[in-house]
């Protein structure tokens, strides 16, 4: 009778193993997202006056944006869309956001902390980052290849990209391909389609 029980238990374990192993293997396989390259190294100060570097995000999937708190045009849209991303992944310790100001002379740690509070940023890995202006512009333009600049003739005095960068747990910028099979490089932070796409791809990277 005992032998029959052992045989039954062994059979159940075997079946479970056949079912579970492929799922476990799949969980740690790379997704179909393209590797663009390593995220540029950075060291900035967050809303809590704490130094945050790219190394602090290792082991996390995170989204990078460039913005400024007094932006009257695209930033409010980007802010609301980023809040939606926060809500989707709230409570996940391996997810984060890096919001880097392009107006650091105004956007001090204190200003960013107040901005984060008003905005409703609650995820513990959402850092609002400031630092030296020249350093930040170099990071945006040469590091991420995302436009950021001053322009006294535009509303708000600054111009910047409305795109979001997606970085995986190993510190590599990743993206999906478009309908022509070309890497999109970055995600549209202004349109619902772009936000839907980045949410889907964050989930893929969290499973890697």
Automatic annotation (TrEMBL):
Keywords, sorted A to Z: Copper, Membrane, Transmembrane, Transmembrane helix
Family: Belongs to the SCO1/2 family.
Occurrences of domain Thioredoxin (ranges): 33-200
Metal-binding recorded as keyword: no
Name of this protein: SCO family protein
InterPro entries: SCO1/SenC, Thioredoxin-like_sf, Thioredoxin_domain
Lineage: Bacteria, Pseudomonadati, Bacteroidota, Flavobacteriia, Flavobacteriales
Membrane-crossing residue ranges in chain numbering: 6-26
One family name in Pfam for this protein: SCO1-SenC
Highest taxon of the lineage: Bacteria
Species annotation: Flavobacterium ponti
Gene3D superfamilies: Glutaredoxin
């Amino acid at each position: 009778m005992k032998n029959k029980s052992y045989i039954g238990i062994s059979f159940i374990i075997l079946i479970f193993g056949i079912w579970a192993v492929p799922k476990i293997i799949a969980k740690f396989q790379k997704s179909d997202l393209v590797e663009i390259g390593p995220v540029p190294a950075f060291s900035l100060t967050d809303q809590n006056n704490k130094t945050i570097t790219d190394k602090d995000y290792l082991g996390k999937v995170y989204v990078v944006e460039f913005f400024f708190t007094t932006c009257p045009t695209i930033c409010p849209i980007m802010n609301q869309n980023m809040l939606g991303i926060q809500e989707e992944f709230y409570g996940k310790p391996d997810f984060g956001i890096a919001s880097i100001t392009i107006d650091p002379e105004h956007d001090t740690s204190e200003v960013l902390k107040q901005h984060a509070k008003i905005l409703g940023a609650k995820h513990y890995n959402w850092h609002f980052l400031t630092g030296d202006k020249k350093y930040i512009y170099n990071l945006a333009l040469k590091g991420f290849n995302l436009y950021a600049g001053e322009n006294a003739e535009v509303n708000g005095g600054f111009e910047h990209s409305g795109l979001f960068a997606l970085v995986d747990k190993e510190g590599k910028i990743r993206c999906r391909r478009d309908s022509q099979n070309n890497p999109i490089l970055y995600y549209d932070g202004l349109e619902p389609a772009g936000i839907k796409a980045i949410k889907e791809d964050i989930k893929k990277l969290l499973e890697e």
